[in-house]
Amino acid sequence: MTLQNKQCQAFLAVLQYGSFEVAAQKLCISASAVSLRVQSLEKSLAQILILRERPCRATAIGLELAQHLQQMQRIEESFLYQLAAKQQQQNFYSVRIASHADSLATWLLPALSPILTAQKLLLDIQIKDQTQTHQLLESGQVNACISTETQAMQGCVAVKLGILRYRLVASPAFAQKWFAHGVKRQSLQSAPAIIFDRHDQMHRELLQQQFGLFANSYPYHHIPSAHEFLNSIVYGFGYGLVPELQMQDYIQRGELIYLAEDSIQPIDLVLYWHHWKQQAPILQTLSQALQQQAQAYLRPIKQK
């Protein structure tokens, strides 16, 4: 039994884009051709590989096959990169990383700067919530990811990077209007909050755990941009959780203030760098450099 390249390409494309139609557009073939190739692959393996849902997702066997194919791709990429490096020193290597928006907006790019300027690397960054980035790694769509997931999946390594600390802040005018008598359960039921998107659970968990408030019991905006999220708080649209790294200048200038600093504890997001055990030498160098550079930006993780 031999795996056919075109069938495998179609299978991986459907998993990556979650749709036969979008996969067909990316492969420049018809949706029926994609479907036929996936069906032929399933028939040759005598296994159902893809659940035809919206979006499409892999079965357990399909996930194993995707991981195998992605591993073969990484080995091939590594070989071609090393071969090209010997033939032509000007070739670049593309590295695919999944990150949440706040790391990208604060520390990730400065931490990557030394290795990117020293090596011929091109970044391909995908943004997902920190609880979901490892899913992109699992499906083989990225080489590595920044995640809050503590356990490495099979074939991968998870390394502690550090802590990204968040604090609840607002503009002085907003705080005076909505929290003049303190940040209390009643005032939180009326004051509009700023939440990144529907996958962001930090704000919801904070209000639920410390004030017994559920998401349907207070008003909130969704602002799915790290930069505009911060701006919306500065403009007085609402209050929200912001990384310390992102707001220090605003605090110093008096444009933002901490809310109930003595009673509301900061939220510490422990970040991990997940990557495949088998990876190109250049990616090993990047992983080592990132782990070292992250220490300059993130809070250290206390040893238990």
TrEMBL record:
By its UniProt entry, which Gene3D superfamilies does this protein fall under?
3.40.190.290, Winged helix-like DNA-binding domain superfamily/Winged helix DNA-binding domain (1.10.10.10)
Keyword field contains DNA-binding: yes
Task: List the molecular function annotations (GO) for this entry.
Answer: DNA binding; DNA-binding transcription factor activity
Q: Does the keyword Hydrolase apply?
A: no
What are the protein's UniProt keywords? DNA-binding, Transcription, Transcription regulation
InterPro entries cross-referenced by the UniProt entry: ArgP, LTTR, LysR_HTH_N, LysR_subst-bd, WH-like_DNA-bd_sf, WH_DNA-bd_sf
* Domain HTH lysR-type residue range list: 1-59
Record-stated family: Belongs to the LysR transcriptional regulatory family.
Name the chain's protein: Transcriptional regulator ArgP
Question: What organism does this protein naturally occur in?
Answer: Acinetobacter larvae
